[in-house]
Write a structure and sequence with these properties.
The structure is a homotetramer of 137-residue chains.
Chain A: E1 4-9, H1 23-40, H2 45-50, E2 53-64, E3 73-84, E4 87-96, E5 99-112, H3 122-128
Antiparallel strand pairs in A: 1-3, 2-5, 3-4, 4-5
Amino acid sequence: MSEHSFPVRVYYEDTDFSGNVYHAAYLKFFERGRTEWLREAGIHHSELAQQGIAFAVRAMDIQFDAAAHIDDLLVVKTAVASVKGARLMLTQHILRRETVLTRANVTVVAIKTSGGPARMPKGIVERFGGGSNAIPL
Amino acid sequence: MSEHSFPVRVYYEDTDFSGNVYHAAYLKFFERGRTEWLREAGIHHSELAQQGIAFAVRAMDIQFDAAAHIDDLLVVKTAVASVKGARLMLTQHILRRETVLTRANVTVVAIKTSGGPARMPKGIVERFGGGSNAIPL
Amino acid sequence: MSEHSFPVRVYYEDTDFSGNVYHAAYLKFFERGRTEWLREAGIHHSELAQQGIAFAVRAMDIQFDAAAHIDDLLVVKTAVASVKGARLMLTQHILRRETVLTRANVTVVAIKTSGGPARMPKGIVERFGGGSNAIPL
Amino acid sequence: MSEHSFPVRVYYEDTDFSGNVYHAAYLKFFERGRTEWLREAGIHHSELAQQGIAFAVRAMDIQFDAAAHIDDLLVVKTAVASVKGARLMLTQHILRRETVLTRANVTVVAIKTSGGPARMPKGIVERFGGGSNAIPL
């Protein structure tokens, strides 16, 4: 299984007065990448929400290696590192052409919107539970 | 009844690459001002949410007269223009010291989080339904 | 000249605890629409920034008619109402399929990133200065 | 030297449709905490910007242990772990009363707004360069 790629354009909203993309904006880009990767796998937040299920990020470690700027066209790459029980581990990169700007290891869990943990949706375990596809950092 | 004042500090997150505060950030400041004005009146979003009630902005007209910058200490002023049936009309200004930076007329309604309109919470009608306190623009 | 259309997907970042899209998020969508409309006209923020020029929203009036939700695919429609001297007046709508969710009249000016007003970039005046293309509200 | 504490209120803008605070919002809260900690030390972004200097986050590892909700009053705790050359290492926590919700180790560097790395501002090295004050995780 190959990694998933999703393009993201940088807009005014993503930048700050330093002239660079604001660091927390990369987390939004990563989240868009995860959502589009799930959508491609047939998993939709809107359907999960009707069952009272949502995702939550439990842990991230992020390296901000280089800055993105207004108008940049970026690519968010997403690959499954592992699915262990209730924990989905992903490796994500943001690139501008060949340059890796930001690298993250992300741990995602499922939660009940009424509070408390939920089981990882079956579709994720079935499709991605078999092994490792981490992008080598 | 006097207008309500609430201080807001400008952080990295509020600015964009032009060096000014991003225009949509003022809407966040206005919303913080409305929330704190309601809190002072004993009305809390967290309690309303438990009853399945939230607020929604139905209309805004905004004048962005002058720019705010990183580290600025702003004041959000909020006054009721009118409460008519389900519609709460507010006048809000954002100032840096004596200078008005942004002016807005805001129409707020109550909604059910399950969808559809809701009655304006009683506390708002009782406290603010009597007349007009608009800040003259 | 026809109006410009640009698709926008709703992500976690755009929603709030009411279950709807946060009202200020529509301003980001409108801004993305304006940026892509300008890009199509050959006008790029990154190039203007190198000349010390950026855009600022001077005024908006917005009607929030109906709510968008997580996973919704929206379309931002942008049309020039007029270009008068330093002021660009736009009419913008956000739709989900046939339904108009949000309508805005937006006044944009050019500014110097060093402070103070700037001339509207020539490309905008030349291409859009001739007349009116407002979407009828 | 003791850790720095700064209160943060949760508003609509910080939440998402899951009913919890959006994960990237905690990064904004951490950034506000760092800014206020610097302000107390007499270091202001607005003054650094005039010298063409800004801060950039180079790395973060974050544990999201528990969720915050609308109206919550949080506290951001910031302590210096070390200042080594151009790198400022901080430990930051977000708490709701006694409960730690989010924990982060943050590496901050100084950059030139014209591009490229800058020296860590002298005030930071002088005040915080001596040793370690990490909050034990």
